[in-house]
Design a protein that fits this description.
By secondary structure, this protein is an alpha+beta fold. It is 36% helix and 19% strand. The structure holds zinc ion.
Length: 350
């Protein structure tokens, strides 16, 4: 009898404990954001060790922080560069487009793969991790750290974007393109010759609608007149700006059709809109200037040089239903998506 009672009690205790665990888990899930809730329901979380690609080629990378050169698989490099260059909260098709831009850039710098390659200017490797020199790169571990509680969801998205586009690049007439991109065009991209020295047939101005819902679309900078005078006079010795006459001395003279400033009067001299953007650290060259006593108020539209793919525009296109090929061929006119790997099958089969 006693033995039976004990058995019954044990069963009740186990049931009570199971019920408590179920209730506690339920409360825990209830407080999770929906995407994480769904992820927890649907399966395993992605961890850094799960970011594995079937690599065909390797790229040498100079880490400017550690002064170290390391080799990494091209597809892993593309994952790390894509995630470093575009917000992982963006749509999958926009991230795929970014992955092709990153892979095209990497490919044209790889001595092993591309005969006309132009390796990193620093001369130590194919590419470096400095976004001012090559393109941004973040290690898998640092990306997971940056993404925090979204890490698994974002990693899965970028991983898929890279994996399903393996080996794909953007080409113009059979040659890899210069896949320039920027954060936000502000509505219209720019012809390459208006920003950089040369005109490229696929880097021409196109409309980029629905960017206004993205961060970086518009910005206002309030600078002291004193700062503006010093910054411009230091960069342009002929300008000879004076604080008291500033509102008469600075004037936008000419704009491109896109709205970006072509030339500006700065005192006794003139400069390009791009030069003034660099001198004053403006978000873009599409700016307008107002003066208010000793303040200079500069409003900008867009973020970045404006040439090639607008990341905000790519995301807006993806939200409207475009796929990555439609996005890429819009921002890089008359181009096509090609694969780099079939050429190397005989050397290193995938
Ligand atoms: Zn570099």
């Amino acid at each position: 009898m006693l033995h039976r009672l004990n058995k019954k009690r044990i069963v009740i205790i186990i049931l009570a404990l199971s019920l408590t665990v179920i209730i506690v888990r339920g409360i825990f899930f209830a407080f999770l954001p929906l995407p994480q809730f769904l992820e927890n329901l649907s399966g395993e979380k992605m961890k850094p060790k799960d970011i594995l690609f079937d690599e065909v080629a390797f790229i040498s990378v100079f880490d400017v922080k550690t002064n170290r050169v390391f080799e990494v698989g091209l597809e892993e490099y593309v994952f790390c560069a894509t995630a470093a260059e575009m917000p992982a909260s963006y749509e999958l098709e926009a991230i795929k487009a970014q992955a092709l831009a990153a892979r095209t850039y990497a490919f044209t710098h790889m001595r092993e793969l591309y005969a006309d390659s132009t390796p990193c200017k620093k001369g130590l490797s194919d590419v470096c991790t400095d976004s001012g020199c090559c393109q941004s790169y973040k290690s898998i571990e640092s990306l997971f750290e940056k993404w925090g509680s979204n890490a698994s969801r974002y990693a899965k998205k970028v991983y898929e974007a890279v994996k399903v586009t393996k080996g794909e690049i953007v080409s113009y007439q059979g040659e890899p393109i210069l896949a320039l991109f920027h954060a936000s065009s502000g509505g219209v991209t720019e012809n390459s010759e208006n920003v950089f020295s040369s005109a490229l047939p696929y880097l021409v101005s196109v409309d980029s609608p629905n960017e206004e819902f993205h961060t970086h679309f518009a910005d206002t900078k309030v600078l002291s007149a004193e700062y503006v005078v010093e910054a411009i006079n230091t960069s342009f010795l002929e300008a000879n700006l004076r604080k008291a006459e500033l509102s008469k001395q600075i004037k936008v003279l000419e704009r491109y059709i896109s709205g970006r400033v072509k030339t500006v009067q700065i005192g006794n001299s003139t400069c390009t809109g791009r030069d003034l953007r660099n001198t004053l650290g403006l978000n873009s060259a599409n700016f307008s200037i107002e003066f208010d006593s000793d303040k200079v108020i500069i409003s900008t539209i867009g973020f970045g040089h404006g040439v090639g793919m607008s990341q905000a525009g790519a995301n807006a296109m993806a939200q409207a239903g475009s796929n990555y090929i439609q996005i890429l061929t819009h921002y890089y006119q008359s181009t096509e998506v090609t694969s780099i790997y079939p050429k190397y099958d005989s050397i290193s089969p995938p």
